[in-house]
Every structure is written in C-alpha cells, then in structure tokens.
Amino acid sequence: MQVTKELVGYVAELSRIKLDEAQTEKMQSELGAVIDYMDVLNRLDTDGVEPLSHVFNITNVMREDDVKPSYDRELLLSNAPERTDETVIVPKTVE
C-alpha cells in the first residue's frame, strides 16, 4: 500500500494533530515502513499455529468471592452532617 501525503493528512486530521511539511514527509515514510512490515508479517506461514492471547500460560488468580456481613448502615450514617434514612447528603458539585 502506498502512503501518500493526502493519507497522512487524513490520518492527522482524524487524530486532531497538525503537521508541517517536514513532519508530513517524515510520517509518510514512517507509516510506509510500518505497513511494509505488516506485509512481511502477512506473508508468514501460520498454518498449524494456535492463536494466543498471551505468551505465558496464565490462570485466573483472583480470590473466591466470599459473602461477608456489611457494616451497620445506621452506625455509618450517624457521622454524616446531613443525611436521609438511607444516604448521605452532599453539596452539589455540578449544576
């Protein structure tokens, strides 16, 4: 795939960045090198290779979800300067 100045300009516009002429030419060659390398990778023979999500064998290391009693709501709300029966009232931060 040929990377043109127009394509670099389009990608820069999507990225909301401004490039001068020198930066555009540099990005044109760098994007071209990346795409050329992707073509090299696409030519590799991957038949019989199992897809991986990670190179290491990872297992779930999360702990068991144990249900435990919660704190007493009335005790927690007793320290609030303003409250309802179930919640703490805080000042508005967004109008």
Structure description:
- By secondary structure, the chain is mostly helical.
- It has a domain at 5-42.
- Helix content is 40%, strand content 0%.
- The chain contains 3 helices and no strands.
- It has helices at 5-15, 21-42, 73-77.
- Helix 1 packs across helix 2 (21-42).
- The longest helix is centred in the N-terminal third of the chain and has 22 residues, at 21-42.
- The protein is flat, with a radius of gyration of 28 Å.
- The two termini are 51 Å apart.
- The model has no long low-confidence stretch (mean pLDDT 90).
Estimated structural class? mainly alpha
Q: Main beta sheet: strand number and arrangement?
A: none
Coarse shape: flat
The helix fraction, in percent, is 40-55%
String of helices and strands = HHH
Distance between the termini: 51 Å
Radius of gyration: 28 Å
Number of helical elements: 3
**Uncertain stretches:** none
Summarize model confidence as the mean pLDDT.
Answer: 90
Beta content comes to under 5%
- Per DSSP E runs of 2 or more residues, the count of β-strands stands at 0
